[in-house]
Amino acid sequence: MTSRVSPFLYPESLSKTESLAIVHLKRDLQTPTILKDRDDDNEGYSEGKVINTRFGSFPHTTLIGLPWGSQVRASKVDTGSRGREKKRKRDEVTETAGPVEKIAKVEPEQAIETPVEAKNEVQENGDVPLAKKEATPSTAPTGFIHLLPPTPENWTSSLPHRTQVVYTPDYSYVLHRIQARPGVNLIEAGAGSGSFTHASARAVFSGYPGNATNKRRKLGKVWSFEFHEQRHEKLVKELQDHGMEGVVQITHRDVCENGFLVNGESPKANSIFLDLPAPWLALPHLARSPPPKTLEDVSVEAPNGDVEMQEEFAPYISALDPCSPVHICTFSPCIEQVQKTISVMRRLGWIDIEMVEVAHMRFEIRRDRIGIDNGNQHGLLATPANVNEAVARLVDVEGTFKAFHATGEKSEIKKRDKPNPNNKQKILEGLIERKIYKEGNLVHRVEQELKAHTSYLVFAILPREWSAEDEANAKLKWHVEKKDGEADKGHAIIGMSKRQQRRAEKQAHKEREAAAAAALKANETTEIEGAASEAQEEKQPGEDMALKSEEINSAVEIEEMKSVAAVEQTRR
Amino acid sequence: MNFHSLVQPDSWVAFRLPSDTLKVVQIAPNTVISLGKYGSFSSNDLLGRPYNLTYELLDAKAGQKAAGLRVVPAAELHADTIREEEEAANPKSSDDKVVLGGDGVEYELVGENGEVIMRSNRETIDDAASQTLTMAEIEILKREGTGAGHDLIAKLMLSHTAIDQKTAFSLAKYKLLKTKKYLRRFTVLPLDVELLTNWYMNERDAGKIMEMRSEMLALTGSWANVHFSESLPDIEGGKWLIVDETGGLLVAAMAERMGILYPLEGEMEPSTEKAHRRDEPALATSNTLTMIHNNAQPNLSLLKYFQYDPTIANPPCPNHPLGTHLHPLSWLQLISPEKDTTYSTPVEPLSEEVLGSLKPGKRGTYYRKLRRWKRTTNIVDTTLSGGFSGLVVASQMDPTSIVRHTIPLLRGGANVSIYSPTIEPLVQLCDHYSTARRTAFITAPPESFASLSTDEERDNWKGDEDFPLNPTLLLNATVQSARVRSWQVLPGRTHPLMTAKGGAEGYLFTAVRVVPARGRVEARGKFGKKRKVDEVVTPGGEGGKSEPTEKKIHLSVEEEIKLTLMGENTQAVEAVGNSSADVEMSLS
């Protein structure tokens, strides 16, 4: 099974058996189904495995081998007699109570679906009821579905909820922010229902182990942790069914207690997502170096590690990638959790801590048709469309009123006599002849159901550790020349626009000239020196002076930089 | 994934300055980097060092011009906040008995002995005059200042006459303000897609990237299901169609998702072979982005920040993964390739002898032309063969016209995701896929469509006035939007940021390409609660209904609108039939 590829990552062109497909009924009603060409659970349909929906029944055989996105018509499936059939069968089984009998029950149904396989089995078992063999699905007059390939998005909206789900707007932003790209090792703690697991697997996937096309490419992996046993089991099964085994490694573990090492090995994580009730308890396990207190505590972290390892002075294994900055996101619904998390993050040396929330809206787009001239039609708001219509109606009512008073006659027109505008013919007529899909104002509004708050997202970064030794090595490699020399005009200063540089240069030049002139003046007339300098000071009072001096400053700086650069140049 | 581990020579980095502005610079070795008023330093002090560190500019020694750098440890960055937190936790330890309330409301509490337990801002003088240092003095301090601005800030705080009147919060705010202005500190950040987006949104021309915020960029990519998908030995990989008018930002974001934005380690090293002159590396066939552009050349100017510049050479940057995985073609080449000169004029292959007799310059031209023609034909032909896994669009053009020409190229189940800064174009597009329109289309297809016999012709149907697009080819047409709101989280002062950026909200249209069944398809549906239309004819009015009944009918009408027109509540055709039954029932 490990060699299987995931339909999430490689949907291929046709739907195939034993592979996940999404049966799309309508936008918010999609059913994930693993297509099977045989009915292993023996549900008693003559058509084999069948999926029943509100839009009809669909035997799996009608869904296998189709191009993705195909519209599939419902089949006529006898759902009614199934229960009785089953019961009858069960009775038979109890009567004869033979294991052979039981097998024979299962086989005939398989025989219908996989004729080639069936032939052999028929030979073995001999007895096959003829009536069953004829039950090939026939198309029902109404009802259809669309068959879609699974994506993390439609999986998120259709998955069986076990916990609160991380929805698409949240996970897409989180994955973008924590730099989950192909080749990344990602830790996910609190896998829950698995929506984030699937999305992150898609994000970090960069090839299956042993199948890599480019040896240089690092294979990305999701290291998932779930502390709830049943949820963990379900997720393991799900990931197996989805062909995700090579991409997601799931561990049953309380990470707050036991840390993130898997079998004593480090996930070497670059990105981390914590969807835990108390992320601050897990944070100390996500450090680059052991906590300063006791080393013994740390070695206990290795969960499946040998006892000897704990007793000896085991070297600290960090769960993080030592060669890259680590990006983290925690996902908490309450502000108190956020405050605690951030407070702990600050103490543990995380930087660029930022908290955000994502607001998401879906829009309903429709045509608002307003008017009274057509009676009560579907989709028509029965109010006057404009003043003219309102006045016309009032006049009409006024006339009836007068007639009533004048003659005492009640208007004879009853509802029943009015043509009903809402029968099928009328509506289709409206659609096809009047083209009401083009009438009215095209408007949009936010959909009724709105998730006003999902959770707060806390992002932070833990930079790569940088020792004095590393710094010394880097210094050696990128040596900075520090010696004064003559200014070299051609040397680059980056970070300043050309205009800024030119201005600074001009300013510096001006200053130099001014200084020279002042010096000359001073030499010539030593007597009025004091007065001159006073005048100069008066010229630049307050802010003006501040501005100018800043400019002078930068000009001088440039001069200085240039001289440094020049020295470097000459050295080289 | 070590691309953003250490600062490499010639890579683009962003400096975050104390004022929270970004300065983006390409780091060349042996240069001086100027950070304006904050100072300058040698680029060699950064090269080979990790990203995400914060540095302080050391005071330049006399005679030395570029200042040295000091790494500011995280503990120092957070020192103030941590101290504040601790003081809040144990109020005894603080000397002046300042108690911080948790709610940020500032009270004045005076103890029995007259000591201030908590200050309020009632007494503060809203006047700049409280600062006794003059501009001139500050300037001198700045020039001679030591300790990367720490001394200056300390002096400023000391000489503020009303400092003891400030509440703890306003004191912190004052310090922060001065820190932003005078502290000579900066953080080195890798210029990735996220940062590039923020930089363009906040400090550059947001219009150039169509005001596409990070969250919308991420959402667009997710809904288009863009991911790494290189062909396996026996399984075909994926390829995506992209229409990008954001100067390459969208391409960069999608390429990042596909793992083709950053070169793998050692991949960018220039190869010594001269083979590139004659043969470029073969175009990738999977995990590719095919970009359709509306000018003769694609505008991918933002890709230069990722070491890819298509304008400098042909083939562009042969060692960059985008060189083989990004396939640009123009709309002309897509729609009528025969009118495109490059495509329609094949370069005649020349024999070795003829080549040998050519002047080197001419030979070069010949190879260049041959390469270009080969590349173009290859791209156009593979694009026209279709089978794309998804469509991603951020364009100023009418989305309807884009969809019309790209939909036939998508395989079934392909995801479509179209970004627009404003909602109106998407509302239009969505209306072309409304249930009412689809129902009309299925029930009575227009003559020009019904006469087509093959599926291929039907997929390529160009639409008419009533049905600009074939409404049965896309499913789940939805328009959505997402927006991120930032919060400040400080002890006792947690709240959303006071200011954010306005501008275009940004919307996303998503849908799935489907393959409609041939022939007439009838829908089926059972609709939740059936509300009976209580049409009791009350005497005494032509209107026929008394007020309360009218209300009831009104409700049911709204519901029906949902049923028949919004469609997502039921299946299209049957909806019509069923609800009519509903009405008939109520009438009888």
UniProtKB/TrEMBL annotation, chain A:
Q: Give the Enzyme Commission number.
A: 2.1.1.220
GO CC terms, sorted: nucleus; tRNA (m1A) methyltransferase complex
- For the region Disordered, give the residue spans: 74-98, 118-140, 500-554
Q: Which Gene3D superfamilies match?
A: 3.10.330.20, Vaccinia Virus protein VP39
Supply the InterPro entries for this chain: SAM-dependent_MTases_sf, TRM61_C, tRNA_MeTrfase_Gcd14
The job of this chain, per UniProt, is described as:
Catalytic subunit of tRNA (adenine-N(1)-)-methyltransferase, which catalyzes the formation of N(1)-methyladenine at position 58 (m1A58) in initiator methionyl-tRNA.
The molecule here is called tRNA (adenine(58)-N(1))-methyltransferase catalytic subunit TRM61
What is the species of this protein? Hymenoscyphus albidus
UniProtKB/TrEMBL annotation, chain B:
Q: Which UniProt keywords apply?
A: Nucleus, tRNA processing
What is one GO biological process annotated to this record? tRNA methylation
Q: Where in the cell is it found?
A: Nucleus
Q: Which GO terms describe its cellular component?
A: nucleus; tRNA (m1A) methyltransferase complex
Classify the source by domain of life: Eukaryota
Q: Which InterPro entries match?
A: TRM6 (IPR017423)
Concerning its family, UniProt says: Belongs to the TRM6/GCD10 family.
Protein name listed in UniProt: tRNA (adenine(58)-N(1))-methyltransferase non-catalytic subunit TRM6
Q: From what organism does this protein derive?
A: Hymenoscyphus albidus
